[in-house]
Specification:
The complex is a heterodimer of chains A (about 525) and B (about 325). Chain A is α+β, with helices and mostly antiparallel strands and about 525 residues long. Chain A has 18 helices and 19 strands. In chain A, helix 12 packs antiparallel against helix 14 and helix 17 runs antiparallel to helix 18. Chain A starts with a helix and ends with a strand. The chains are: A alpha+beta (about 525), B mainly alpha (about 325).
Chain lengths: ~525, ~325
């Protein structure tokens, strides 16, 4: 090769490299906060899951994007034994773990990884149960997995069996949750051998669509597309989370082109964002409910007719206008309309202060004085609890009920509101974990949850029988029917005033395509593309 | 001088003990506990709550927890964050350079503009430039930081597009931190344009954080200067026919600087307080934002460790200021 040719080839190569670099697509997401860590299982915050379980890991089963329907993930298929106690999963073959600067996997994903991922949470004496000081498996415990799960067994390299202590129909949906992300047992063994177990939470390795590159605390998280991803390489090359805690600043960054996607806009900024020619604003009903829970153990709120009368005095439309500013829908059932088994035929209590007044009189309630608890924080299901409480206060005054609004620091609020002898009705809400109706109906209204997450302290035997039965049957049509009936009982007994389901907005650059909003509130970037 | 130094250091010991008690008590008198906050709406059962409190060591008598914290802190062990599970010491020193860099820039900004402005105002007492400078200083001093920051972002980043909205450097640049100071690291990285990107990211936060100290320094310089200018020796210097420049710049300034240096030292506390808001607005990954997050999450080890570190830094700076003060004014170090 002559020198000239050599020079030309070199130049050509350099040009190709340079153009390759110029074409590398980087999507910037202005995330709202810092992750607590990169091992999703010990944590409970959505912000942590967005940065860990969603880009980096997969689960045996996954939620179909944009729905709460469960589809195969790292498991290709599964079978449930007739007694509902054994779940056998056939694992996908040829799934690669990410190769990073700090770890090169020597084998594909297999049953050992699944067993490791669950046993470390299940077994108190597992070497990884306390791999870093003060670790707790909050979600695993919160979903009652220690009581539910008897064992996780490797049948062969590509088959895993979960044995339960009792039948539990929502089990499959639980396995699609963030805490059920599959870790690499090989990587864990290497960290253990190196005496650096704590790095599992700082330098993650998974099978997910992106691999971890670097994290600068409270500033930036960098990911790159996982070349060997089993479902194919991503359209974008790099994914960057620019941590921006203030909503107004996120809006400015989005408008200035410093980020492509920015979650949780201020409701007041929506009009401005929608008017920007370079931006698009997606919206979706959140899988949540905001409610007012009466204390059904304390008179006169132990009478369904009193609770119903109060419900009829609440002008929900004015709450939607003033508190949700259009970003909410009236709620009539305890589960949101996007969830399967939502009972459309239930009639909401009509807004009728006159009738409400008469009902109270008929129930022998006069000069009622009550407390309404207003949360001190903004939550997805209630952007301004104080304002909401004031509106309800004014509604109740019209039927002669005097309301005192009380509030506590958030941690105290959560704790005190659980008390069975609590004085007053509590404003609170819920965002679904796994898209299963059981996750609302049993967790928030079941008899076991009285004194805990059942803030109405309501234990109704008809309702309980329906919800407990639905846990044990695996046929979805049958479960649907049971949950529909449970919603009828709920409406008849009125332990809550169901207020609203909020709408979630997601502003992004018009260059972004393929983004699908998650009803469970997560932020996913696989399949997302960026126009040049 | 040595005795003076000893006396000052002697004062630090009781202050340090006081700070540990304050930091320890502060987070515990706030209602709410970390376990309830972690569990959120779901809540935890009383048994699980007790088990977790035991795991974190919060079931022990309060004095035992305090002594454990105090003696561990003396050995440089501040415990692990309840949230990230990482050592508080590591977390602090990962984030501290960002706060320090911003604070240094803000104080330089405040001194380099505040001192000349104060001198200028003093030499033209009662004139309209004096009133304009003092009026502006009053406005600056009263400025709510959050509002001021957003205003600057909307104007300079949003409308004019001159400066970036937030962050420490453009996301295009990616290198491992060496010193933690972005200005230095960007130079060390050798990447073209990195340094200027870091500088452009510093402009707005520096202005926002430096505004209040700037106002204070300008006012303090003016009043100190006015006092000195009316002294006999200044009149003598003037009478000797010395140039006004030399009278003000050399003879008066040296004495006027003593209260100004004290003021600058005291501004360190103001800067750290201001950093909380400034860092939140500009997504600046420093200790101010970290402290606020930790307080909201009732992350006991982070709050008590972080507060202690901040207090130690403020105490150290004040010690240095005291020593400087002694150097500038020999009378002080001889007073018993």
């Amino acid at each position: 090769m002559t020198n000239t040719k050599l020079l030309m080839v070199t130049l050509l190569g350099a040009t190709m490299l340079a153009s390759g670099a110029a074409h590398s697509k980087t999507l910037v997401y202005c995330s709202e906060g810092s992750p607590e860590g990169f091992d999703p299982a010990p944590f409970t915050a959505g912000t942590t899951f967005d940065a860990s379980s969603k880009p980096l890991y997969n689960r045996l089963v996954e939620f179909k994007r944009g729905t709460s329907e469960v589809i195969p993930g790292l498991a290709e298929s599964w079978e449930v034994s007739s007694d509902g106690l054994e779940y056998t999963f056939k694992l996908r073959k040829g799934v690669k773990f990410q190769t990073t600067d700090f770890f090169t996997p020597s084998r594909d994903f297999n049953a050992d990884d699944v067993v490791f991922s669950f046993e470390r949470q299940l077994k108190k004496d597992h070497p990884w149960n306390q791999y870093t000081a003060g670790i707790a498996w909050e979600y695993f415990d919160g979903m009652s997995m220690p009581d539910l799960l008897k064992s996780v067994e490797k049948v062969d390299d590509n088959t895993v069996k979960f044995v339960l202590n009792r039948p539990e129909a929502p089990m499959i949906a639980n396995l699609a949750m963030d805490f059920a992300s599959i870790m690499s047992a090989e990587y864990a063994a290497k960290l253990e051998a190196d005496g650096k177990k704590e790095l599992l939470n700082q330098q993650p390795v998974g099978t997910g669509p992106f691999k971890f590159v670097a994290y600068q605390k409270d500033a930036v998280i960098r990911y790159a597309a996982h070349e060997g991803y089993w479902a194919g390489k991503q359209p974008i090359d790099d994914l960057v989370f620019a941590i921006t805690t203030d909503a107004s600043v996120r809006q400015q960054k989005l408008k200035a082109g410093e980020c492509h996607v920015a979650p949780y806009p201020n409701p007041a900024d929506l009009a401005d964002l929608k008017a920007d020619p370079n931006l698009q604003v997606m919206e979706q009903e959140g899988l949540n409910v905001g409610y007012l829970a009466y204390n059904s153990l304390v008179a006169p709120f132990d009478k369904p007719e009193v609770r119903k009368a109060l419900n009829m005095a609440i002008n929900k439309q004015s709450i939607l206008d003033a508190v949700f500013q259009g970003a909410g829908k009236e709620a009539k059932n305890p589960i949101p309309p996007t969830m399967w088994s939502y009972n459309t035929s239930v009639n909401d209590d009509p807004y009728d202060p006159e009738a409400a007044k008469k009902m109270l009189e008929a129930a022998g309630v006069k000069d009622l004085k009550m407390k309404i608890w207003a949360m001190p924080v903004q939550r997805p299901y209630n952007p301004n609890a104080r304002r909401m409480a004031e509106l309800i206060q004014s509604d109740f005054s019209k039927i002669g009920v005097g309301v005192e609004i009380v509030s506590y620091e958030w941690g105290e609020y959560l704790k005190l509101s659980k008390a069975k002898d609590r004085d007053g009705a509590v404003l609170l809400g819920w965002t679904g974990d796994n898209g299963d109706p059981d996750n609302f109906l049993a967790v928030l209204l079941g008899c076991d949850a009285v004194g805990g997450s059942n803030r109405a302290q309501w234990c109704n035997k008809d309702f309980e029988a329906l919800v407990q039965k639905a846990k044990t049957v695996s046929d979805k049509a049958e479960r649907t029917k049971l949950y529909e009936d449970a919603q009828v009982v709920f409406k008849r007994e009125a332990p809550w005033a169901t207020i609203a389901h909020s709408v979630v907005f997601m502003p992004m650059s018009k260059k972004v395509s393929g983004y699908v909003m998650d009803p469970l509130g997560g932020h996913w970037f696989d399949g997302v593309d960026l126009a040049e | 001088m040595f005795q003076f130094l000893l006396r000052r250091i002697g004062l630090i010991i009781p202050t340090f003990i006081g700070v540990t008690i304050a930091a320890f008590a502060f987070i515990r008198v706030l209602p709410g506990d970390p376990v309830e906050l972690m569990a959120g709406e779901r809540g935890v059962s009383p048994e699980r709550h007790a088990a977790l409190m035991k795991q974190f060591g919060y079931d022990r008598p309060i004095w035992e927890q305090y002594l454990d914290y105090f003696f561990s802190a003396l050995q440089g062990d501040l415990g692990n964050s309840l949230v990230t599970k990482k050592p508080v010491w590591d977390e602090f020193f990962t984030l501290f350079p960002a706060t320090l860099e911003l604070s240094i820039c803000a104080i330089i900004f405040a001194v380099f503009i505040g001192v000349p402005a104060g001198i200028y105002a003093a030499t033209r007492r009662g004139s309209w430039p004096d009133q304009a400078i003092m009026g502006t200083a009053l406005v600056g001093y009263s400025m709510p930081i959050f509002w001021w920051g957003l205003l600057l972002i909307i104007l300079f980043s949003g409308t004019l597009g001159w400066t970036p909205v937030s962050g420490r450097i453009s996301l295009l640049y990616f290198f491992k931190p060496v010193t933690g100071f972005m200005l230095i690291d960007s130079l060390l990285s050798g990447q073209k344009g990195a340094f200027s990107s870091a500088v452009s990211h510093l402009i707005l936060p520096t202005i926002v954080l430096g505004t209040i100290p700037l106002a204070v320094v300008a006012r303090q310089t003016r009043s100190a200067m006015l006092e000195v200018l009316s002294e006999d020796y200044v009149r003598t210097a003037r009478a000797k026919g010395m140039s006004p420049m030399r009278v003000v710049g050399v003879h008066a300034l040296r004495n006027a600087m003593i209260p100004v240096i004290t003021t600058i030292g005291l501004q360190v506390g103001v800067l750290l307080a201001g950093a909380i808001l400034t860092e939140t607005i500009f997504s600046w990954p420093g200790i101010g934002k970290w402290m606020v997050d930790s307080i909201f999450r009732r992350d006991y080890p982070s709050v008590q460790g972080g507060l202690l570190m901040i207090a130690v830094i403020v105490m150290t700076v004040n010690l240095i200021v005291d020593l400087l003060y002694g150097l500038v004014n020999p009378r002080i170090r001889h007073v018993r």
